[in-house]
Amino acid sequence: TEIGNLTNLSYLSLHTNNLSGAIPSELWTLTGLNNIDLTDNNLTGTIPTSIGNMTNLNTLRIGTNGLTGTLPIEIGNLTGLTVLKFGNNSLSGTIPTQIGNLTALTTLDLSMNGFTGSIPSEIGNLTGLTTLSLFSNGLTGSIPTSFGALTSLVDLYLHQNSLSGDIPSG
User: How do strand 138-141 and strand 162-163 relate by DSSP bridges?
Assistant: First the structure.
């Protein structure tokens, strides 16, 4: 069946299966979806820019797959997201500064990918974050001083990168 026909779908949970291939492009047309969980499969391909149309999403979990390419800047359109988990894929490039638009986030997990460059200071805008996981990437530069604004943070995972400089003192 065509997933694009499921226009009333609000929750899609397909985690922990043996699903493979690319995520169907029709999925990103189901703008009524609130929750997507495709974690722990064998999905491949890239994250399309059309992800930016999914403005009703509250939770997006696609960790532990084989996704490649970059995290599109359109991710910044998903301002209602509370949980964003793309950990344990093969994503690369820099973390887009537009991630700082996602001010409803409580959990951000981009760990175990191939992200490079510096940690965007805009993450400091995400003052509701309780968990920030960026470990096991190729991140460089210093820890942004803007992290001092993350006063709700309970868990911070930045290990196994190439960060340098001082630990911000606030």
Answer: parallel
Distances (CA, A) of 109 to 18, 25, 73, 134, 170: 22, 23, 16, 6, 23
CB-based contact 34:59 (threshold 8 Å): yes
pLDDT tens digits, 127-154: 999 999 999 999 999 999 999 999 999 9
Q: Which amino acid is at 95?
A: I
